[in-house]
Each structure stands twice: as structure tokens, then as C-alpha cells.
Design the sequence.
């Protein structure tokens, strides 16, 4: 049986107290909300914090407010189930509702949070193993080792982004509000991520992701599709989020295509989006856009299924997502 390492648990009552605790304890502390990813990683000794700062008592991080016409605010502690079943989100931001509804299994969505999924650790076949297994192969760069076992000649870690919500929120043009002892700032969701399997978040250690800010839907329609081996529970090995809005004649006015689980950060398929501008969503355009979206997808052999299969599935899932929007 895998057991948790020893730690001290602190449950502050305010967001200000939370950020101050993180600043005081530095790298020895970690945040826990739902704990659906953190606790398994601690059991495998990927994380061994001395202090866990619990967020569950922070009412200011809960709740879903607003509407699609004026924009919505979602607290970081809103559960994935609450978001997936929220009528206004399902109507105005369907990609987010679909993404949250596809995370893991129902039991974990009931406790897993939006903030937790946005900050979820990157994944790799050589990293997400027990401590005994990792020791047998000499560890990897992401934890306790010196080289990336996926690309031994590389100076960086290639663990992949594993959030379902991130591609959806990027496609929707959402922002996140970050709070620290120094104040607060709001940044686009795509700016939260860095192309590094270890330092994959741009937020400081003492910053807390407090809420997600959704802009008015303003005619945008969206969809999220996910590839995984099993129909439930598994992390994505490909996520495709597409948002677009059309002119009155049916041609595409604006669009965003975001690919997840192919790199250490969500990847925007900008060349594919350029092919959509001013075009109708007919089969020929969809085929060309799907092919272009696959070009920036460069998966490595660090996740479930083969990298060639995952590469081949990119245009398939982009095409299916665009066909969903046609319907």
C-alpha cells in the first residue's frame, strides 16, 4: 500500500492568510483543494511538501456568477461537476462544460476543482510511476534525476500538459485572477503556461489562482473533444478545443483552435485558424483546416498509446470538432 508522507496541514480562513502562509513557508508548502491529483503524487513521492495549505474553507474562492451576455466569474474552488452542469455555462460556454464533464470520473469531478485542473501537474510515462519504479530506471529530470528519459539529449523536461480545462478556456478568451501578498493581477489563461515540463506555470509560488473570468459569449460557439484510452477516468492524450463565431452569411468571422496534451503547454493552431477566416464551414475547408492543425502537433513517446497514433488523431479530432459546430 502506498502511504502519504508526513506533513503539516494548515487551513487558513482568508485568501490573504493563505498567500502569506505560502510566502512564509516557501517551497516547503503546497496548496491543496480537491487533492485528486496532489495526494496520489504525494503517495508516489513526486511531491513531499512539509506543509499543505488547504483552501476548502475559503468561501471567497467559491461560486459561479454572471451570465453569458455580460460575462461570468467562476471561483477557483468551483467543482468540475458544478461547472459541467451549470445551465448558463452549458449554454454560453459549451466547450468548458464539456471539458469539465470529461475530467476523470464522476466521483472525482465532485471534489476536483477548476483551479486544481488548471494547475494540474504535467505528466509523463517515466514520471507518473511509483518511487520504486522510478528508482529502478535512475529517475528522470522532473524528479530526482538529471536527464529527460524521453529525450536524453535534451536540456529540458518534455512532460505534457494534462489539463482538460486549459485548452477550452484559452479558446474562449478567458482570464485568471492571481492573488499574492504583493497584490493581484489578471492574465489571459494562455499566459499561465510555459513550455517547460517542470516549470510549466508562470504564476509565482505564493500566488493563488482565485477565479476565472469569462468574457461575454457574444456569438461565440465552442466545443471540446478528448482522446483517451478509456471512456472515463483517463487523462487526455489529446484535447481539442475550438471556438468560433460566424457572419450572417455563414462565413467564419473569428476562430481559435487550441490543442492540449501534445506539449508542456496548450498549443494554439494559428495557421489552421488563418484558413478559416472568411470561409464557410464546408467539407473542403474543414479538411484543409484539420490538416493544418496537425502540423504544430509534435507528440513524443511519453504518454499512453503511440506517438504516431496520437499525431494521426489530431486532424481527425479537429475535423470532428468542426463538424460538431456545423451541427
Sequence:
Amino acid at each position: 500500500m502506498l502511504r502519504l508522507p508526513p506533513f503539516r496541514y494548515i487551513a487558513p480562513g482568508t485568501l490573504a492568510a493563505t498567500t502569506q502562509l505560502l510566502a512564509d513557508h516557501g517551497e516547503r508548502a503546497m496548496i491543496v483543494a480537491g487533492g485528486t491529483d496532489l495526494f496520489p503524487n504525494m503517495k508516489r513521492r513526486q511531491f513531499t511538501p512539509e506543509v499543505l495549505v488547504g483552501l476548502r474553507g475559503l468561501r471567497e474562492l467559491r461560486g459561479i456568477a454572471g451570465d453569458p451576455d455580460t460575462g461570468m466569474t467562476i471561483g477557483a474552488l468551483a467543482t468540475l461537476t458544478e461547472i459541467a452542469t451549470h445551465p448558463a455555462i452549458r449554454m454560453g460556454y459549451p466547450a468548458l462544460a464539456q471539458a469539465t464533464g470529461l475530467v476523470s470520473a464522476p466521483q472525482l469531478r465532485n471534489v476536483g476543482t477548476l483551479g486544481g485542473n488548471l494547475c494540474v501537474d504535467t505528466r509523463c510515462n517515466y514520471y507518473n510511476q511509483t518511487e520504486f519504479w522510478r528508482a529502478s530506471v535512475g529517475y528522470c529530470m522532473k524528479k530526482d534525476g538529471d536527464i529527460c528519459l524521453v529525450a536524453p539529449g535534451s536540456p529540458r523536461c518534455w512532460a505534457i500538459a494534462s489539463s482538460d480545462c486549459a485548452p477550452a478556456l484559452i479558446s474562449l478568451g478567458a482570464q485568471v485572477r492571481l492573488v499574492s501578498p504583493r497584490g493581484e493581477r489578471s492574465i489571459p489563461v494562455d499566459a499561465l503556461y510555459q513550455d517547460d515540463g517542470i516549470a510549466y506555470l508562470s504564476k509565482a509560488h505564493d500566488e493563488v489562482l482565485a477565479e476565472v473570468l469569462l468574457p461575454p459569449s457574444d456569438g461565440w460557439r465552442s466545443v471540446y473533444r478528448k482522446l483517451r484510452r478509456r471512456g472515463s477516468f483517463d487523462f487526455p492524450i489529446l484535447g481539442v478545443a475550438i471556438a468560433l463565431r460566424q457572419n450572417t452569411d455563414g462565413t467564419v468571422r473569428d476562430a481559435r483552435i487550441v490543442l492540449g496534451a501534445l506539449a508542456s503547454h496548450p498549443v494554439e493552431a494559428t495557421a489552421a485558424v488563418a484558413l478559416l477566416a472568411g470561409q464557410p464551414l464546408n467539407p473542403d475547408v474543414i479538411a484543409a483546416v484539420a490538416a493544418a492543425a496537425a502540423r504544430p502537433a509534435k507528440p513524443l513517446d511519453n504518454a499512453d498509446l503511440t506517438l504516431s497514433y496520437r499525431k494521426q488523431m489530431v486532424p481527425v479530432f479537429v475535423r470532428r470538432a468542426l463538424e460538431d459546430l456545423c451541427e
